[in-house]
Structure formats: C-alpha cells, structure tokens
Sequence to fold (504 residues):
Amino acid sequence: MIEDKMQKGKVWLVGAGPGDPGLMTQKGRKVLEEADVVVYDALIGSGILSLMPAGAEKIYAGKRSGHHFLKQDEINRVLLEKAREGLRVVRLKGGDPFVFGRGGEELELLIENDIPYEIVPGVTSAVAVPAYAGIPVTHRDFCSSVHIITGHKRKDHTYDIDFKALKETGGTLVFLMGIASLPVITAGLLEAGMDPETPAAVIEKGATANQRIISSTLADLAPDAAAASVITPAIIIIGKVVSLADQFSWRQELPLSGIKAVVTRPKELSSGLATMLREKGAEVIELPTIEIAPIEDNGELTGAIGALDSYDWIVFTSPSGVRVFMDELLKSKDIRSLAGCRIASIGKGTEKELLKYGLRADMVPSEYDGRTLGTELAGLLHEGERVLIPRAKIGNHELIEELCKISGITIDDIPTYDTIYTSQEWFDAGEAFDDPHTYALFTSASTVRGFAKAYPGMDYSKVRAVCIGKQTKAEADGHGMVTYVSDKATLGSLVSRLEEVCSQ
Ligand code: SAH
Fold:
C-alpha cells in the first residue's frame, strides 16, 4: 500500500515498461511523481522521464555517448546512500525490474543494511514489444507456451543455452539482449532441428516512434537483420505466432504512428495536448520550456478582487490567467462575486479553464488573438465602463491598443504571473531533432523563447516547429526553425496541422 505520502528513507524498484508512458503502472507513476531521487537507465523512454518531478535529483545510470555511467556496485551504493539520507529513492528500470533487469542484485546491499524497499512490477518488453508489433506471444492454434531467454553471452563469451530443449517445447521463443548473438541463436536452433521456415522477427525500439520490425524466417533472420543494420534495444521472437503480425498490425494504422512530438507547454497544461497526440499514435515527450509563476503578494490583484463590483468586464487571455486569478479569488470569495461582471475569453483553451470554475465566457472573438479580441470587445463597450485584465506580466499590447481607442472607459491591466523559462537536463535536443520524425509543438511565442534558452547554441534549423498562431511562428522563424502554422488557434487544429505535415 502507498500511504498519502511515501515513506522516507526507502527505495522503490520500479518497472517503467517498454517506452510508452501509458504502459507504466499507476502505482509506478505515483511513486515516481513523489520521488526525491530518481536513478534511471538508458532504456527509459523520454515520455516517462518527463514524469520525473521537477525538484527531484536525477541520476543517470545508463550508458550513453558523452555521459558518465555508473557500474553496478556504484548504483547499489547510490541507492543505499540516498536512502540513508532519508530520501525517497526510485530506481527506475526498463520493462519489469526482475526480468533480466538485475533487480535482485540491486536489493542485496539494501537488505544487508536493513533499508526498506518495495518492488513495483512493470510491463516487460518481452510481451509488450511483440504486442505493439501485432504479435500475440501465445495463440491457441500455434503454441502452448512462451519462453523468455537471455541472449547475453557470459564473460568468457560462451552462450550456455540448451537449444534442443527450447526446440522441443514448441513454444514461442523471445530473446532479450540477443542482437549480438543472433547468428549463434539461429544456428543453434537450426542445428537442434527447428524448421528453417519457422516465422521469426526482430523488433527494434518497440513501443516507441522508431519501432521497426524485420520479419523473416529462422533461416534468414540473422542475415536480414544484419542487412537492416538493426540496433539495440531489440528483441528476437521466433515461432508461428510471428505470422500474425500483418493481420494484427494495429499501431501502424494510427495517423501519427512513427512520429515523436515534443510538447513544450507548461506541465500543468500539457496533458490535454499530449493525450490527443498519443491517441493518434504519436510518441509524446512532455518537455515544458516555460513555467507559470504567480506574482506573490500581488496588491494590485487583491485590490481588484476586493472591488469586483466596480468592473463591467473581466478579460482572460490564457488558461493560466484564469487559474491564477481564480486561485486568488477563492482565497476570500466565491464565484458569486463575479455575478455582476461579463467575461471575455481569448479562445477555446481559456474558455475550457473558465468552465472548470463554473464560468461561461460572454464573448469569444472570431479569431483567437489579442488584436481581434481588442477590436471585437471594444465594439461591445459603453462609456464609463470598467475593464479588468488580469494576465501575464509581458502581455500582448495589441489588445490594449484596440481597447484604448474607445474613449471614456477604464482599463485595469494587472500583471498576475510571470513566465519563467525552464530546461530539462535529461533531454538531448540535438540528438532528438537529428531524427526527421521529431516535431516540436509550440503553443505560444514564450514556449519558443523558452526552448531557445534551454538549448542554446544548437542548430535550430533542425527543429521542425508546428506553431499555434502567427506570433508563435514569427518567434520560431526568428530562430531559423522550419515552421508550420495551424489554421486556427486551437489544439485540435495544431494536431491536424502536424498530421498534414507528417503525411506530406
Ligand atoms: N527488464 C527489461 C529487460 C532488460 S534487458 C524488460 O522487462 O523489458 C534489456 C533488453 O530488453 C534489450 O536488450 C532488449 O532485448 C529488450 N528491450 C527493452 N526495451 C525494448 C524495446 N523498447 N524494444 C525492443 N527491445 C527492448
């Protein structure tokens, strides 16, 4: 059982699944979100790394070019030391921690030292990677067992597997860590008398946007995989069930299958867009480049909230603007205090945020930008009316320009939050955008600025930027990115634009 707050000074050995964050267990996710320290491996997908809490210490334990990596006994020691410091330590491992994950070894030192620990199982790649490639590891018509085998050779380079016994089972054979030994594995099975025509496949980077399936037969798999230059991680699957892959290929049918979408919105706003993209088959990396920081002890805002009766209109220009304003209002009042005000909202996302508080916008402009909002709202205003605009410190000036054209109205333009740029150290932007299937999604000019600040000096001409609105596109163009702009300033339109761009 996980209590409300996780116990301190404890280690959780958590299985992250094969890559898609949707395949991590609810318990694993909850534990990760409350971790003080996360020790993670190379095989953990970026979609899962983006779930690590901003404040947690992140220790990379895997191999990757240019990075130091930890040896097994160093990892064991880090887990022990951090737990002894009274921290909540999550050891995040690919797939399931006990399926060829050396999970057992990492527990030994903890047990010796009486450190409390828990195991959170994960979805193993041995089963999930075939499933994402449309291969059921068992099927009543084809086999009655499935076997998960290591392809890893021993230190003395021998490979101690009883191929005859494996062949006799008649079951599906799944080899992990087997790419280097693939010719030895197929030769061993052929020698043991397995039918050379047995369907066989290698699945590379399963359950990610870069998933690749090399389908073949037992006799031809090794040369076919070599010709395709297969790289790790990849699994080998051998058995009649492999022939079902074409029939059950569900994932390739999704419109954004094979696409990596980098979502740069602030964390609290990214989930809606991320869900839309995942439903269409994209691999999503949530990479907030800005954070919303409410202005503390904001006398102007509390003053305005104290005098709500005096306003005729309140204008919201972003979902964050709504949230920060409502948080402050609800400290002393409730929504009845807005009964006398009409509400203007710049667009759909803002309207949706208002609805969460039981508020409906009285006006939304025909186009979702500051100038159109200003022009169309100006048409509704009467002399003597007062307008409150609680919004970002650096707000769009066109809105105010348009409203100021009307004489005899009062405008209280109150800054309520700052936009702070953030970066995520686990994300290698240069490497990510080398892949032509990676796209960045920008929903405001500030997310573009945040991205540029987080990854200075990179070659921005590699960044394929799908933008909401002209201002966002202009900012991305200014950095030399390859830009595309959505027809409308909505998330739906942004996703449709990405689909169009990808299908070209
Ligand atoms: N504990 C992990 C396995 C660790 S061994 C699990 O349960 O999945 C590492 C091996 O797992 C890799 O060499 C590869 O064979 C396999 N693997 C892990 N993730 C994979 C992925 N996304 N696609 C293909 N194979 C993967």
Remarks:
- The CA atoms of residues 173 and 250 lie 22 Å apart.
- The longest helix spans residues 319-332.
- The radius of gyration is 27 Å.
- The chain has 18 helices and 20 strands.
